[in-house]
């Protein structure tokens, strides 16, 4: 239906899971012992609130969202070169609609509108479009251009560090809160051998930057807008002056 963007080719670290042994009920100590009390106190401690969960975690589980980001992909095999993209995506799950616009630094673009069970691929340069049936879910389409590109990825991640630090965005230095995660592979296949680390930066609780790092390279997202409201400029309709081609 559409050409998938192979922007990031990364291997994820494999992860091993272990199972805990359960004690026989007859060997358990009475609930009044100090050990049992300590166990209850430990289990009652609340889990720390992660800014990632409060932002992208809630965003992707909602009905509507809008993302606009600059993306830079750097490879260790070509340290003197990088690829830059500007990505905008709008999703309305309730109306079964979505819009994607990706601009590449070489001047090419990918502009797609999904609505009414149809996929429209727009050529904005000559104001033409092609159309074909869209049988997938809006969730699947949105994930292809977000989490599958590691944009706002929320799992499988393990929090390794958090705190405050200074970063430079758009030539300006600012103090942000960061959350660093290790990415665990979803399986233990032989190919999943490369560790990946994701660092999110938040400015007053809002995501402003994401950095994905492996031995293969680095991908940096600078977030321009992250919201669960669709801006008035977003349109899921075909412009009147576009003509069908093909």
Fold and architecture overview:
The chain has 246 residues and is mainly beta. It contains three helices and twelve strands. A twelve-stranded mixed beta sheet has the order 7-8-9-10-11-1-2-3-4-5-6-12, with helices on one face. The two termini are 15 Å apart. Mean pLDDT is 82; it is low at 1-33.
Essential attributes:
246 residues; mainly beta; twelve-stranded mixed sheet; 12 strands; globular; disordered N terminus
Brief write-up:
By secondary structure, the chain is mainly beta.
Question: What is this structure's SSE topology?
Answer:
Elements: H1 34-44, H2 51-61, E1 64-75, E2 78-92, E3 97-104, E4 109-115, E5 118-123, E6 128-133, H3 138-144, E7 157-169, E8 172-183, E9 196-203, E10 206-214, E11 217-227, E12 243-244
Parallel strand pairs: 6-12
Antiparallel strand pairs: 1-2, 1-11, 2-3, 3-4, 4-5, 5-6, 7-8, 8-9, 9-10, 10-11
Query: How far apart are the termini?
Result: 15 Å
* Residue runs with pLDDT of under 50 for 5 or more positions: 1-33
Beta-sheet strand percentage? Answer: 35-45%
**Strand elements, count:** 12
Morphology call: globular
pLDDT averaged over residues: 82
Order of helices and strands: HHEEEEEEHEEEEEE
| Structural class determined from secondary elements | mainly beta
Helix fraction by DSSP (H/I, runs of at least 4): 10-25%
Q: What is the subunit arrangement here?
A: single chain
For the biggest sheet, the summary is:
12 strands, mixed
Spatial extent as radius of gyration: 22 Å
Strand order of the largest sheet: 7-8-9-10-11-1-2-3-4-5-6-12
Question: What count of helical segments does DSSP give?
Answer: 3
């Amino acid at each position: 239906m559409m050409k998938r963007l192979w922007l990031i080719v990364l291997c994820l670290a494999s992860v091993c899971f272990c199972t805990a042994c359960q004690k026989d009920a007859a060997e358990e100590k009475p609930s009044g012992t100090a050990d049992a009390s300590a166990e209850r106190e430990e289990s009652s401690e609340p889990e720390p609130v992660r800014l990632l969960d409060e932002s992208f975690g809630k965003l992707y589980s909602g009905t509507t969202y809008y993302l606009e980001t600059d993306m830079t992909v750097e490879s260790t095999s070509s340290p003197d070169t990088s690829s830059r993209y500007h990505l905008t995506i709008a999703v309305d799950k309730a109306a079964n609609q979505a819009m994607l616009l990706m601009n590449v630094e070489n001047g090419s673009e990918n502009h797609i509108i999904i609505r009414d069970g149809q996929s429209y691929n727009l050529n904005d340069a000559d104001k033409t479009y092609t159309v074909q049936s869209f049988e997938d879910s809006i969730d699947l389409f949105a994930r292809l251009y977000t989490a599958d590109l590691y944009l706002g990825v929320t799992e499988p991640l393990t929090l390794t560090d958090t705190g405050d630090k200074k970063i430079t965005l758009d030539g300006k230095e600012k103090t942000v809160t960061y959350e660093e995660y290790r990415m665990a592979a979803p399986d233990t296949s032989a190919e999943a051998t490369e560790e990946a680390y994701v660092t999110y930066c938040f400015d007053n609780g809002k995501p402003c930057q994401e950095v994905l790092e492996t031995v293969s390279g680095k991908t940096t997202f600078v977030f321009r807008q992250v919201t669960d409201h669709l801006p008035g400029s977003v349109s899921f309709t075909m412009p009147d002056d576009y003509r069908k081609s093909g």
